[in-house]
Amino acid sequence: MKEYKMRRGEYLDERVPDMESTVEDYFGEITGTEEYEGDDLYVVGDPDNPVFDRIVVGASTYGSKKDKLAVHFEERDAEDVIAEGNAEAAADAVDAKNDFLLEATGRDAKSRRESMKRAVEDDPDHDVDA
């Protein structure tokens, strides 16, 4: 599960006031919920795009801190998808993920990567020699 921060001064519930319909617009019908660290996240068990096997997404709350977007994309092997003749679906899956994450967090792919990199560098339990 990956967690994404919002852009400075912005909040997840303001950026995506109706998470359920937003998730369905991007990925398909929500088939249930799943608990993650005390929060119920939406599960898309049969996503519209054949690249995805399953998607879990929702708000991860932290009490006095800002909520983060928690997302887990279970994807099929790209080679298998392309071999089935779904190369366009593979490109569409990347676009759907990036567009959804941009809408929800206000941060583009480059900004999200840099933020994740800083989080790893700031983690005292992260062993850079491993």
Can you give a write-up of this model?
Helices cover 40% and strands 28% of the residues. The chain has one domain. The chain is globular and about 45 Å long. It starts with a strand and ends in an 8-residue tail after the last helix. It is built from 5 helices and 5 strands, in the order E-H-H-E-E-E-E-H-H-H. A hairpin with a 2-residue loop joins strand 4 (52-62) and strand 5. It is of the alpha+beta class.
Tags for this model:
single chain, 130 residues, 5-stranded antiparallel sheet, 5 strands, disordered C terminus
Helix share bin: 40-55%
Structural class, from helix and strand content? alpha+beta
Summed up, the helix count is 5
Kindly, what is the distance between the CA atoms of the first and last residues, rounded to a whole number of angstroms? 22 Å
Strands, helices and their partners?
Elements: E1 2-4, H1 12-15, H2 19-27, E2 32-36, E3 39-44, E4 52-62, E5 65-75, H3 78-83, H4 87-105, H5 109-122
Antiparallel strand pairs: 1-5, 2-3, 3-4, 4-5
Question: Brief overview, please?
Answer:
The protein is an alpha+beta fold and 130 residues long.
